[in-house]
Design goal:
about 400 residues; Rossmann fold; DNA Methylase, Chain A, domain 2; eight-stranded mixed sheet; two-stranded antiparallel sheet; 12 helices
Length: about 400
C-alpha cells in the first residue's frame, strides 16, 4: 500500500485529554490509554487486519491505514480539530523486528529500523506535549546503542526532555514475562515523572530477574496464568468459535471478573489445529514441562541434537501457578511455551489476549486465525500501557495548563 486509506471517525466525543496512536496495530497501547481516561482520537498502521480491529474497537477514532511516511501532521491536526502544540500525547511503537534479539539479522539500517524517523518527523509537525515510544530491549544495544542515542538527541533538538526505561509486564499485573523499552518525553515538565511505578510484586518475580525487595507502591500480588484464563471454556485441538454466548459459570478471580466486564459474549476463543505429529509430542509434556519430556524418537531431527539446557520453552506447557512466556506472533509449540496447562492444544486467541491484558469486550478481526494471533502478539500489554497513561495524565494535569514551560536539562 502506497497511500493512506483514511477512515473518518463515526462519532465524536468531547474528551479532556487526547492521544494519537501511530504504528497502532490492533490497539494495545490505545486500550491502555483509554482505560486510563484518555480519548483516542486517531490511529495509524499499514496492516489491513489490524486496521479492521482498531476500527471495530475504536469507533470514536479516525484511522489512517497506510505507511506512516505518507501521513502528514497537517492532516492529523485538521482531522482531530487541533492546533500544533495542542495534542496531549503521541504514542506508538515503530516495528521492532529489526531490533529484536530473536532476529538473527538484526540491523540498524534496514527500512523497518528507520521507521522511527517518520515518527520523529510527525513529532516535529504536531509538537505534542508528551511522547511515548515503545520497542524491544534490543533497541538499546543495536549498533552499539547509537540508535537510541540518535532518538534522544533528535528529541532534545525538538525541545523535549526524554528518558528511557525498561518495564516488565508482570510487575504491572500482566500474567506474562515480557520486557519492553519505553522512550518517554515531555516538553512541559520533567520526563522522569512519566515513568510509572510497579504495582505488583512477589518473591516469585525474583527468579525471573525482578526486584528482590518489594518496590514502594507495589501492593498487589502478581497474576498467574490460571488466575487469568482458568474460567474460559474447554476446547478441542483446533476448536472454538469467534463469537459465542458466555457459558454458565462465574469468574473466580478479580482478573477474570475485570476481563469479562462489558463483554456481550465470548469472542475469539478459538485455537489453531496442531498436526498429529505435534499433538503426539505435547501429550507427553506435563504442566510446566517442555521438549525434554517428549520421547526422543518423537522429537524433530534438529532437537535430537540439542543440549538439555537449550530451547527450554519449546513444546512447553504453561503452569497454572506461573507466568506465560512472552506472547509472540505465533503461539506455536516450536516457538515456545504455548500449550494449555490442562488441555492438549495450544492456547486460543482469547487466552493469548487475556495474557496480554486485553478485555474480553475487545474483538479481533482478520480472515485468518494466524492474523489474529499476530495482532495479539504484536501488542503492548494493556496493563503496562494503562500505567504509563495514568502517569502521563498526572503529568499533563500538573504542567499542561501552565503557559510557562519548564527549562529542560540538555
Amino acid at each position: 500500500m502506497n497511500e493512506i486509506n483514511y477512515t473518518v471517525r463515526r462519532t465524536w466525543k468531547a474528551v479532556e485529554h487526547r492521544c494519537i496512536d501511530l504504528f497502532a496495530g490492533a490497539g494495545g497501547l490505545a486500550v491502555g490509554f483509554r482505560s486510563a481516561g484518555w480519548g483516542v482520537v486517531a490511529g495509524n498502521d499499514t496492516d489491513a487486519d489490524a486496521a479492521a480491529t482498531f476500527r471495530l474497537n475504536f469507533p470514536e477514532a479516525s484511522f489512517f491505514e497506510g505507511p506512516v511516511s505518507k501521513l502528514s501532521a497537517k492532516e492529523l491536526l485538521a482531522d482531530c480539530r487541533l492546533d500544533k502544540g495542542d495534542l496531549d500525547c503521541l504514542v506508538g511503537g515503530p516495528p521492532c523486528q529489526s531490533f529484536s534479539h530473536n532476529n538473527h539479522h538484526r540491523s540498524a539500517v534496514d527500512e523497518r529500523a528507520r521507521l522511527f524517523e517518520h515518527y520523529l518527523a510527525l513529532v516535529g509537525g504536531l509538537n505534542p506535549k508528551t511522547i511515548m515510544m515503545e520497542n524491544v530491549p534490543g533497541i538499546m544495544s543495536i549498533d552499539g546503542g547509537r540508535v537510541i542515542e540518535e532518538i534522544l538527541v533528535r528529541l532534545r533538538d525538538l525541545g523535549f526532555g526524554a528518558t528511557v526505561v525498561r518495564l516488565s509486564a508482570e510487575e504491572f499485573g500482566t500474567p506474562q514475562l515480557r520486557r519492553r523499552v519505553f522512550v518517554l518525553a515531555s516538553r512541559i515538565g520533567p520526563a522522569a515523572e512519566l515513568i510509572p511505578s510497579p504495582t505488583h510484586w512477589g518473591p516469585a518475580l525474583a527468579q525471573f530477574g525482578g526486584p528482590k525487595e518489594r518496590p514502594p507502591g507495589a501492593t498487589r500480588r502478581p497474576v498467574t496464568v490460571w488466575q487469568a484464563i482458568g474460567d474460559l471454556p474447554e476446547l478441542q485441538n483446533g476448536g472454538g468459535s469467534h463469537s459465542a454466548e458466555w457459558p454458565h459459570g462465574q469468574p473466580s478471580t478479580i482478573y477474570q471478573r475485570d476481563a469479562r466486564r462489558g463483554a456481550a459474549g465470548l469472542y475469539n476463543h478459538v485455537c489453531h489445529r496442531l498436526t498429529d505429529v505435534n499433538l503426539n509430542r505435547i501429550v507427553h509434556v506435563p504442566e510446566g514441562g517442555n521438549w525434554r519430556d517428549v520421547p526422543r524418537e518423537l522429537l524433530p531431527a534438529g532437537m535430537k541434537r540439542a543440549r538439555l539446557q537449550d530451547h527450554t520453552k519449546r513444546y512447553g506447557r504453561l503452569a497454572k501457578g506461573g507466568f506465560a512466556s512472552t506472547i509472540l506472533t505465533k503461539c506455536d509449540p516450536h516457538w515456545g511455551a504455548y500449550v494449555h496447562p490442562t488441555q492438549d492444544r495450544t492456547i486460543s486467541v482469547r487466552e493469548a489476549a487475556r495474557l496480554q491484558g486485553f478485555p474480553d469486550s475487545f474483538r479481533f478481526a482478520g480472515e485468518h486465525l494466524s492474523k489474529q494471533y499476530t495482532q495479539v502478539g504484536n501488542a503492548v500489554p494493556v496493563q503496562v500501557a494503562q500505567a504509563i497513561g495514568l502517569a502521563v495524565l498526572v503529568h499533563i494535569r500538573r504542567y499542561g495548563s501552565s503557559n510557562k514551560l519548564l527549562k529542560l536539562a540538555a
